[in-house]
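Key result, reporting period 2: structure in, sequence out.
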């Protein structure tokens, strides 16, 4: 039987106090006159018949089960979405995946759009990233990445022609420089 001075708010406090007692925590001194059984009575079920209590408990259990089912459905939907995203990423061509895996750790896609380079320019850039910044590349990956970047972010034809011309002339310029330096030494 509940304590005679416990009203609606008091029932809530009594229920919380009962919970605290069940957990072994100290309670407020104002409820010292109530027994543990009185404190642990669910104030909502207090005036109910046994059938009403049972129906309420079943409704609570159904709601708990429905909430659990919603949680499982949400997790399944998130898992399906994640798997679909992974499958979409895996279906893309190897050079795209490799470039993203190796380069996107430090760079975003906009970096590549701002840098239109020829194949030698991208090769130099990839090797610079590898040597100067420690980019991890397996054997042969630099060529796949360079080919992909040159194809998707290549320089305009005029810049490409200038680069290839300079590359073709480089050995001739080096040879001419060496010849000039050697000729100067012989004349001394």
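The corresponding designed sequence is given below.
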């Amino acid at each position: 039987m509940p304590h005679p001075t416990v009203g609606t708010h008091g029932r809530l406090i009594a229920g919380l106090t009962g919970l605290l007692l069940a957990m072994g925590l100290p309670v407020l001194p104002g409820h010292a006159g109530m027994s543990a059984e009185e404190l642990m009575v669910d104030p909502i079920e207090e005036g109910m018949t046994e059938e009403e209590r049972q129906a309420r408990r079943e409704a609570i259990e159904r709601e708990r089960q429905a909430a659990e089912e919603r949680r499982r459905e949400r997790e399944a939907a998130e898992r399906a979405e994640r798997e679909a995203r992974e499958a979409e990423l895996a279906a893309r061509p190897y050079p795209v995946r490799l470039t993203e895996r190796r380069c996107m750790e430090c760079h975003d896609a906009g970096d590549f759009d701002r840098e239109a380079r020829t194949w030698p320019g991208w090769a130099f850039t990839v090797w610079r990233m590898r040597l100067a910044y420690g980019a991890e590349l397996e054997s042969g990956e630099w060529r796949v990445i360079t080919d992909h970047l040159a194809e998707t972010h290549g320089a305009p034809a005029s810049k490409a022609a200038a680069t290839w011309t300079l590359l073709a002339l480089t050995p001739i310029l080096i040879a001419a420089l060496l010849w000039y330096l050697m000729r100067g030494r012989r004349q001394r």
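The chain has three domains: 1-47, 48-91, 94-172. Residues 18 and 55 are 23 Å apart (CA to CA). This case is discussed further under Risks and Mitigation.
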